[in-house]
Write a structure and sequence with these properties.
alpha+beta, Ribosomal Protein L30, Chain: A, three-stranded antiparallel β-sheet
Length: 61
């Protein structure tokens, strides 16, 4: 998992979502629909993606 990079795109809104999901979206640098960020796939990032997987689309680079 060392140098893998992933592209994370928010495709669903955080309206009416639990606070921890909203904070996870913010921590990843997302927050608006169709915003995309590129991150290195670490265990911490993988856990965040797992928590909000229903709100985002993930593509490996």
């Amino acid at each position: 998992m060392a140098n893998k990079r992933v592209q994370i795109k928010q495709v669903r809104s955080t309206i009416k979502r639990p606070k921890n999901q909203k904070l996870t979206i913010q921590a990843l640098g997302l927050g608006k629909l169709n915003r995309t960020v590129e991150k290195e796939l670490t265990p911490q990032i993988a856990g965040m993606i797992n928590k909000i997987g229903h709100l985002v689309v993930v593509k490996e680079l």
